[in-house]
Amino acid sequence: MTANKLGIAGAALACVSALLLGACSSSGGGNNGTNTGGAIPTANTTEGAGTLPKGEPDVNGDGKVVIGVLSPGDINDHGYYESFVDEADTFAKSKGWTVIKRGSVAPTDALAAARALCQQKVDMVALGASELKDAIPASEEPVCANTAWYVPASGNLPLTPKIMLSSDIASQSVFAGGYAIALLMKEKGVTKAGFIAGPSADYSQRAAAAFKAGIRQVIPNADVVTTFTGDNNDSAKGKEAMQAQISQGVKAVYPYLGGSTDAVATLANSSGVMTLTPGTDRCDSTSPKFDVSVLFSPGDYFAAALQDFAAGKLRMGVARVWKMGVDPYPTVKICNPTGDQADKLKAFIGEIGSGKIDSEKEADKAGS
């Protein structure tokens, strides 16, 4: 994803907890971002979980594949909402599929908009964000009988047999990001890092703990300074926090922010402080420059889901929990690794995937 597609670091990071980190639905202590009040079958448990739509991806059997996307935001915003649609467009083009997209859908219009998509014979209805949850009842109606549904998970969103809920494990990506930056810190002989977030909420506090835990996997005595500015998008507050951390000797920082990410990263660059991205791949960015990309954007998850859809493997009636070291996303990459850094990070991610390392337990330790 290009630098101007910092979707997570845009307007939607105000509820990144709901759509990306599952924090609007849990405090980070569970294994997924849904809250259905009971056990949820997931696509990572058994092959028989949920149901597989007949003929997938040509679910309605008309000889073509059409993806319908509904978004509550501007799909030309050069950010979060556009990134979700772009993933659909890119993948569909590679497969010769068609994408029908509609942006700026009001929650009150979601149900009617979903019915309208189904009337256009789409094979999948994809909701760009859980604000459009009122569209979900259409999945049970005759007009949408032959469709698959992709829905980002958030708190109190019930699982139904006709939809797939998409979420991740809150701590994994930030934990691995901490590990990755610690490899670079160790090479430079530095032991002090910083974490800057907006509101001091459960999700951001949990992320800070996971980041610290990841760093201490490599540098047990590392000092991690955490600052909450109160606003993900206030660049002045973000820069003030960054300057204060620079004054305290911080040599690596995670700007876990929204619209103020680039301002903070630019200031970090000017002082030689290493940086990480909050959600997207910006290793090609030069202004500002990032040293580690932490990848957990909803567009990436959607692209991975479309790959399963194309392969006839996308099941309905499951909460699809994207797991590090098991699925393509979430993941972490060092932009310019040296020596065995890339191999060490790959092995670490694999240990998270196998369960040998539990990011939740490590975050508990760091946060206590």
Kindly describe this structure.
The strands form 2 sheets. This protein has a 6-stranded parallel β-sheet with strand order 2-1-3-4-5-11, with helices on both faces. It is α/β, with parallel strands linked by helices and 368 residues long. Helix 2 (80-95) packs parallel to helix 8 (298-310), helix 4 (172-188) crosses helix 5 (202-216) and helix 6 packs parallel to helix 7 (261-270). Mean pLDDT is 86; it is low at 1-46. It has 2 domains: 3-169 and 299-322, 3-Layer(aba) Sandwich (Rossmann fold); 172-296 and 328-367, 3-Layer(aba) Sandwich (Rossmann fold), CATH 3.40.50.2300. 33% of the residues lie in helices and 16% in strands. The chain has 10 helices and 12 strands.
Q: What brief labels describe this structure?
A:
single chain; 368 residues; alpha/beta; Rossmann fold; 2 domains; six-stranded parallel β-sheet; six-stranded mixed β-sheet; 12 strands; elongated; disordered N terminus; Peripla_BP_I; cell membrane
List the helices and strands and how they pair.
Blueprint: H1 16-19, E1 66-70, H2 80-95, E2 98-102, H3 110-119, E3 124-127, E4 148-152, E5 164-168, H4 172-188, E6 192-197, H5 202-216, E7 223-228, H6 235-247, E8 252-256, H7 261-270, E9 274-279, E10 292-295, H8 298-310, E11 318-322, E12 331-334, H9 341-354, H10 359-367
Parallel strand pairs: 1-2, 1-3, 3-4, 4-5, 5-11, 6-7, 6-8, 8-9, 9-10
Antiparallel strand pairs: 10-12
Helix pairs in contact: 2-8, 4-5, 4-9, 5-10, 6-7
Domain ABC transporter substrate-binding protein PnrA-like: 64-313
Family: Belongs to the BMP lipoprotein family.
Protein name: BMP family ABC transporter substrate-binding protein
